[in-house]
Specification:
Layout lengths: L3 H37 L3 H14 L26 H11 L7 H20 L29 H16 L5 E6 L6 E2 H5 L10 E9 L10 E9 L13 H4 L6 E9 L3 E6 L4 E7 L4 E6 L10 E3 L10 H13 L1 E2 L2 E2 L1 E2 L5 H11 L1 E5 L12 H14 L3 E3 L23 H12 L5 E4 L1 H20 L1
Parallel strand pairs: 1-3, 9-12, 9-13
Antiparallel strand pairs: 1-2, 3-4, 4-5, 5-6, 6-7, 7-8, 10-11, 13-15, 14-15
Helix pairs in contact: 1-5, 3-4, 4-5, 8-12
The protein binds 1,6-di-O-phosphono-beta-D-fructofuranose.
């Protein structure tokens, strides 16, 4: 029987998908009218604008027969880019340890396209605000983070759950999400009670990162990571094997994020380099625009919420002061950038170099970011691009999430076991991600000022 949670998300999902057709028809009429207005202004410069617009959009609203399409007008050819599908087919064929992950990752890419459309239409289709429980009409329950679940959190969570479990034909056996208190088996997600629980991988994800940004139409993202279940691992709580989830980040076989912003980009690592795929809005296809991305060894950007500066530990304060006093790094003036969404801020650092940090503060002694489905996947991407991911005291990927004590002969209530399991799944970690030189400098500050701070 589907729970209230699934009913909310299913009704919302149905409503959203139903609406999509109208939007596309409306969009094309919009384009038509845009051109009429430009063409009416007869000055020479506007005709140049029109020419370049036509060629870039590859379509002349006046139709193929029009004079504009003559040989004289330059025709901007779409770059001959490899599709994500082709990339995954070849890479998963080439690497035995991810051999059958291509379909799952393609399903995740499709899920990101859906989330992209939903985020873009959240304003017009009133997908804002707290999720309402259709059965009670009440505001839906808080998530395990103690935050009131937003409609978009629930909707995007369902889309990602179904992407990992629905399309992966038993490749992924269980999933953990920021929006779920505990990991769930794919059988439970898909409602297949008698489904044999197989699949050698588990997936972790944050369906909508930076969700606070949506109200202001600022960038948001989705983060995910895939682990292989340890050999011989047996089913645990509700058929879920916690050992598969509570592994070091070094055990991840793939990680990625999707950024919904000026362009929609999917950034992916399968353990051999980082590749960026940009969504072609016309073809709705992810194309490989940046193969084998490398982050600069040193960068001039820093991305910290400095409103918390006084709460930062001395090493972090010293690091930021030193960076500002440096004035320029890597030949560029030191500058601050903070969008307030992990995916957006880290993507900026990946492309331009520098450092993103969400330190521990006096109130959040482990910082704010969750190790399993935020910091670790981002750290794997950073390291695969030649950068680094640190807690200030070592690699994020070496952090072992807290392991629940084994339940010897039922000496622990289910509630206690659940609580312990939840602690491991949603554990937070101070997070520093970026260029090796910048992250190295930060760790030096912890090494030097940390000791001083401890002796005080
Ligand atoms: P969620 O939105 O997924 O909970 O993520 C946490 C987050 O929004 C990060 O994306 C972002 O880097 C950070 O919190 C911003 O926190 P703050 O507003 O305290 O700077």
């Amino acid at each position: 029987m589907m729970g209230a949670h699934s009913v909310i998300s299913f009704l919302l999902l149905a409503a959203v998908l139903l609406l999509s057709e109208e939007v596309t028809a409306f969009q094309s009429s919009l384009v038509g009218s845009a051109f009429t207005s430009i063409r009416s202004s007869s000055s020479s410069s506007s005709s140049q604008v029109v020419t370049s617009l036509y060629s870039s959009l590859d379509a002349d609203p006046l139709g193929p027969g029009s004079s504009r399409n003559s040989a004289s007008s330059p025709k901007m050819k779409k770059k001959d880019l490899r599709s994500l599908q082709r990339f995954l087919e070849v890479e998963c064929w080439r690497s035995p340890n991810i051999r059958n992950l291509d379909r799952t990752l393609l399903a995740v890419a499709d899920a990101c396209k859906q989330i992209n459309r939903i985020v873009q239409r959240a304003q017009t289709d009133d997908l804002y605000g707290a999720a309402i429980d259709p059965l009670t009409g009440e505001i839906a329950e808080e998530n395990v983070q103690g935050e009131v679940q937003q409609q978009l959190d629930v909707l995007c969570n369902t889309i990602m759950l179904r992407a990992f479990c629905g399309a992966s034909n038993n490749v992924v056996c269980a999933v953990a999400s920021e929006e779920e208190p505990l990991p769930r088996t794919c059988a439970d997600v898909m409602g297949y009670d008698n489904m044999i629980q197989s699949g050698e991988y588990v997936a972790v994800f944050d369906p909508i990162d930076g969700s606070k940004n949506i109200d202001a139409s600022l960038p948001v993202g989705t983060v995910f990571g895939i682990y292989r279940s340890p050999e011989g691992s047996s089913a645990g709580i509700d058929g879920v094997n916690l050992d598969s989830f509570l592994q070091r980040g070094t055990k991840m076989v793939a990680a990625g994020y999707c950024l919904y912003s000026a362009t929609t980009v999917l950034v992916l690592t399968l353990g051999s380099g980082v590749h960026i795929f940009t969504l072609d809005p016309d073809k709705q296809q992810f194309l490989q625009t940046h193969p084998n991305v490398r982050i600069p060894d040193v960068g001039s950007l820093y991305s910290f919420n400095e409103a918390n500066y006084r709460e930062f530990s001395e090493p972090v304060q010293k690091f930021l002061t030193n960076m500002k006093q440096a004035g320029a790094l890597g030949g560029k003036k030191v500058s601050s950038r903070y969008v307030g969404a992990l995916v957006a801020d880290v993507h900026n650092i990946l492309i331009n170099g520098g450092i993103y940090g969400y330190p521990a503060t006096r109130d959040n002694v482990n910082g704010k970011l969750r190790l399993l489905y935020e910091s670790a996947p981002m750290a794997m991407i950073m390291e695969q691009a030649g950068g680094a991911g640190s807690t200030g005291h070592g690699r994020i990927l070496d952090v072992l999430p807290p392991q629940p004590k084994k339940n010897k002969g039922g000496d622990k209530s289910d509630a206690a076991s659940d609580e312990e399991a939840g602690k491991g799944i949603h554990v937070r970690v101070p997070t520093y991600l970026g260029s090796v030189e910048n992250v190295y400098e930060l760790e030096q500050c912890f090494r030097y000022y940390g000791e001083e701070e401890d002796n005080n």
